[in-house]
């Protein structure tokens, strides 16, 4: 089931880091919003653009809305940043996919 979370970032110059541990755990900072997610794909809006995470048995392990931190566990297949040209297409695609 798809869900949507707004993350309240304090400060406009928040840093963005992606830390992967053993291809099973991701810690992501600088998250502005969790657009959508399910067990195979997460779409996050970060301070550096949209980030798509694909994998298997993905779960949100932790969400810290005050600090803009998201932790995801599961088997990670790929991470991809979507540039400005692809953002609206991605939003439309995911909104159709998760309805």
Automatic annotation (TrEMBL):
Q: Which domain of life is it from?
A: Bacteria
Quote the InterPro entries the UniProt record gives: Spore_YabP, Spore_YabP/YqfC, YabP_sf
GO biological process terms held by the UniProt record: sporulation resulting in formation of a cellular spore
Q: Would you tell me the protein name for this molecule?
A: Sporulation protein YabP
Which species does this protein come from?
Answer: Anoxybacteroides tepidamans
């Amino acid at each position: 089931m798809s869900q949507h979370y707004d993350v309240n970032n304090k400060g406009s110059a928040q840093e963005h880091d992606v830390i992967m541990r053993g291809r099973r755990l991701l810690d992501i900072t600088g998250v502005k919003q969790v657009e959508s997610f399910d067990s195979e794909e997460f779409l996050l809006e970060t301070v550096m653009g949209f980030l798509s995470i694909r994998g298997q048995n993905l779960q949100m392990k932790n969400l810290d809305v005050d600090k803009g931190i998201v932790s995801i566990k599961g088997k990670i297949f790929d991470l991809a940043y979507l540039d400005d040209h692809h953002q609206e297409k991605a939003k439309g695609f995911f909104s159709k996919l998760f309805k």
